[in-house]
Amino acid sequence: MKQRILVVEDDPAIALALEDDLTSEGYDVEAVSDGNTARERAGSGRFDGILLDVMLPGRDGFQVCRDIRRAGIRTPIIMLTAKAQEAEKILGLELGADDYVTKPYSPLELRARIKAVLRRGSEPVPDTYRFGDVEVDFGRRELRRGAEVVDLTPLEFKLLALFIRNRGLALGRRRLIDEAWGTGTFVTDRVVDNQVTNLRKKVEPDPSVPRYVLSVRGYGYRFDG
User: Fold this and answer.
1) Residue 122: what pLDDT?
2) Residue 20: partners with Cβ closer than 8 Å, 6 or more residues away
3) Superfamily for domain range 4-122
4) pLDDT, tens digit, 9 for 90 and up, residues 171-197
5) What is the side-by-side order of every strand in the sheet holding 28-32?
6) Global pTM value
7) CATH architecture of residue range(s) 128-223
C-alpha cells in the first residue's frame, strides 16, 4: 500500500511541483492550501506524513502543528518555510514538528527528509513504558508520576521516546539533534544539554544525581530505565 502524504502549501506552483515529485516517488499525495482545511484533513488519521508550510491563510503552520499535536495526532510533520532564523526552527520543533526544511530546498534533500521521518514514525514503540515511578503513555503522549500528569513539551517527549527506544545504548549529541530536532538543524551541544536537564527534572527522583538519563562523558547520554 502506498504511503500517503498531506501537502499543505498555499502557493499553487509549489504545491503542484511537490505533488508531481512525490507522486513520481510512489507516494499517494493530497494537497490543501489553507490552515483550517489542513487541520481538518490531518484529523482524519489517514496520512503517513505531513508537509506543512508555515505561511498559510486562515491559520499559520505553527498553529496547525500545535493543534495537530494537542489533538494527539502523531503523524510525522515536516515544516516548510522561507524563514531561516534558528528561533523559527526551534519554535516549530517545540510545537511538535519532526523536521524543518527551509526554502529553497533541494528535491533530493526533501525526499531524504521525508523517508527519514516516515522511517522513524514506523519504528515500534510500546503503548506504555514504566521505569521507577514514571509511566509513559505513547498513545496519549503523556507522562505520569504516581497519580499526577507531568507536562512535557513535544521536544522533551521526542527525546524521551528516543531514549526509551534505545535504552542501554549511548546516544551522541549529534544523533539526538538529528532525530529529535531534525537532520541538518543547527543546534548547539549546550541546547541539547539544557533540554536533557529539563527532562531530568521531570523523570528523575533526584535530578542532581540522575538514575535513568545518564551522561556519557565527551559523547552524549544513555538511558538506563
Assistant:
1) 59
2) none
3) Response regulator (3.40.50.2300)
4) 888 888 888 887 667 788 999 999 999
5) 28-32, 4-8, 49-53, 77-81, 99-102
6) 0.62
7) Orthogonal Bundle (1.10)
Report whether 49 contacts 3 (CB < 8 A).
yes
Give bridge partners of residue 172 from the DSSP assignment.
Answer: 220
The angle formed by the CA atoms of residues 13, 103 and 37, to the nearest 5 degrees, is 55
Report the distance separating Cα 221 and Cα 225, nearest Å. Answer: 13
Cell triple for residue 142? 503523556
CA 135 to mean position of chain CA atoms:
21
130-159 tens-digit pLDDT: 999 999 988 788 899 988 999 998 889 989
Task: Measure the CA–CA gap between 7 and 180, rounded to whole angstroms.
Answer: 22
Residue with cell 556519557: 216
